[in-house]
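Just curious. Protein, please.
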Amino acid sequence: MPKSTDPQNDGLVPSKTQSGLVRKRPTIEEYFIRFAELAATRSTCVRRQVGAVLVRDKHILSTGYNGAPANMEHCTTETCLRLKTGVKPGERHELCRGVHAEQNAIIQCALHGVSSRDATLYVTHSPCTICAKMLINAGIARVVVKCQYPDEDGIEMLKESGIEIDFVEKE
């Protein structure tokens, strides 16, 4: 198969299948963002579904999604304090009983004895400031984001710490 000059596509160009159809192989970013989107479908948050995947050397280390802590009731429109009090997205994170997707991905690494050092985080929404601090201290090297979350300070913290940030939009 001919090589591509596109480093995002792992050196392969679109190819014909046995049936003659042309398919485009997803880039590494598209591939792992799709896993983050799949993780988000497990979210129990009533306001926003977020998914995250920690990857190193093109291998998944852990996944996470946002929702109530283990062994606790899932969030509902009746129990969501942020919803009941009208807190805007990106503000007053302490009023949420849920654990963020990025936090859960880091926690899963810790629970299973897997280092997150130098990993890349693929996430459906950019990290808030709390998650940004955790990602910095967890040794994350790069963050690939599908869409911007209203808390832009998280991105600024990641940049200041030297973590590489990339925004991608899945086709």
